[in-house]
Amino acid sequence: MSVLLIAGSPTARSRSAALLDAVALRLSVQGIRSERLSVRDVAPEALVLAQFDHPAIVAASAQVEKAQVVVVATPVYKAAYSGVLKAFLDLLPQTALKGKTVLPLATGGSPHHMLALDYALRPVLQSLGAKHILPGIYANDAQVTLSPEGAYTVHPDIGARLDDAAHILLSETLRPAHWAAGSFAPVDFSQVRCSV
Ligand SMILES: Cc1cc2nc3c(=O)[nH]c(=O)nc-3n(C[C@H](O)[C@H](O)[C@H](O)COP(=O)(O)O)c2cc1C
Question: How far is the CA of 84 from the centre of ligand 1 (A)?
């Protein structure tokens, strides 16, 4: 069961990437490891010149293909997601997200563009065939603090939303049987009684 974290910011010290770290931490304490793909590390010429057969794009596509869960994080740029993330997504196969669960994350300078995840990124994820797109999580810059040493803190409201998202990923996609075993045993359909 693999999780791929895609960092869509061109910036090295990145708030949106810190949200990915926060998701990775929540999954790792449950024993789930994740891989990371930073779009800023993908060969720039491949992105700008749309070189579908560039080794960096082939390798990145393979990473996406083997993931069961994809977490995509982006900064808001000009009321949408980052251009470099779009350049990357454009080079993936048309059904790159087929059958996968996707969690979209974004940070922005203000709360005004919090819907960018829904009106800009979500349709693209849908067009790539994502099976299940979780509700996106948006944080403004004041809610994600970066230290000069590279550490981060997230506002408790954002932390709670990340907890919920990690719980959904674990219980519905990554380890559904494990979570089911800890809650209710399966009930045979013949035993089900309707109250209407
Ligand atoms: C070129 C550029 C455009 C931006 N446009 C917006 C915007 O339209 N709306 C917004 O809320 N923030 C905007 N911002 C602020 C970033 O979204 C915000 O600082 C974000 O947290 C940066 O994420 P990162 O650290 O992962 O790159 C913009 C920043 C840059 C550099």
Answer: 13
* Spans of all domains in the chain: 3-191
**Which CATH entry fits the domain spanning 3-191: 1.10.10.60, 3.40.50.360, 3.90.650.10, 3.10.20.30?**
3.40.50.360
Residue environment code for 9-19, b if the CB has 16+ CB neighbours within 10 A, otherwise e = bbeeebbbbbb
Its pTM stands at: 0.91
Chain centre distance of CA 115: 16
Ligand 1 atom having least distance to the Cα of 140: 21
C-alpha 48/C-alpha 57 separation (Å) is 12
Residues 84-112 have pLDDT tens digits of 999 999 999 999 999 999 999 999 999 99
Is any atom of ligand 1 closer than 6 Å to the C-beta of 145?
A: no
* pLDDT tens for each residue of 62-88: 999 999 999 999 999 999 999 999 999
Torsion sign over Cα 141, 20, 45, 79: negative
**Residue 70 backbone class (left: φ over 0; alpha: ψ -120 to 50; beta: rest):** beta
Residue closest by Cα to atom 15 of ligand 1:
109
Query: Ligand 1 centroid to 73 CA: how many Å?
Result: 12
Q: Terminal CA-to-CA distance of the chain, rounded, Å?
A: 40
Binding site membership of 8 for ligand 1 (Cβ less than 6 Å): no
